[in-house]
Specification:
Oligomer: single chain
Order of helices and strands: EHHEHEHEHEHEHHEHEH
Strand content: 15-25%
Bound molecules: pyridoxine-5'-phosphate
Largest sheet: 8 strands, parallel, barrel
Length: 248
Amino acid sequence: MSRLGVNIDHVATLRQQRGEHYPSMQRASELVFEAGAEQITIHLREDRRHIQDADVPIVHEVCRKFGKPLNLEMGCAPEIIKLACKQKPEWVCLVPEKREERTTEGGLALTDKAVFKRLSDAINELKQHTPQTKISLFIEAHAETIDASLKLPVHAVEIHTGDYAKDFLENKDLSKYLHLYQAAHKKIHAAGRGFHAGHGLTDQSVRPLVKLGIFEEYNIGHWIVCEAVFKGLGPVVRELRMICRGEA
Ligand code: PXP
């Protein structure tokens, strides 16, 4: 059975958009675990567009209370590595990061020597200061990238499903992705490493992946927060209308 990691970055996006103190990340984290999620994922970006430094210990504390892991997604910027070494999350997922991108736009370019070296250094630093933290690499499922990932001492890979998810929404043929994922899983599984998936997934696009039965973990965020608007808008309006009418 696969695990669901819920990415709550976009709860923080709503807060940062107005510079308010709500919505509360603590309350969101508690709700996510009360609903059965197996992990919370947050991405501390260099530009701090959603998650802030102060959110990390607050969310981590809720994870500890529920006995569930915090998965901290991050780039390799030295100050972020330092923060992870201090916070000691259960998982770190190393991702590429460009300031101008709207969201993480692809996996790590592991076949690039400079990128490989930067990651290798970041992994060494994490292992030295927080040896209990497990590390995953956010990568594409291409054979060369999978082979390169096996040269790094990490516990898992998270396959970037962004392009797959886009093609799903456009009703395109998905077989090329499903074949790639199966071939990648064979190698990663044989090496005794975890095989995770994330980015752009919805309740529908995750189904063919679940059917494949090869992913141990899915990290899903944006769609969950979007769908929560529709599941939550009605009751909130009903309640506020009662208040406005002096009936509650
Ligand atoms: N996994 C990784 C590595 C990501 O960068 C993201 C986006 O922050 C996600 C999962 C979640 O993606 P989405 O919000 O599109 O579901």
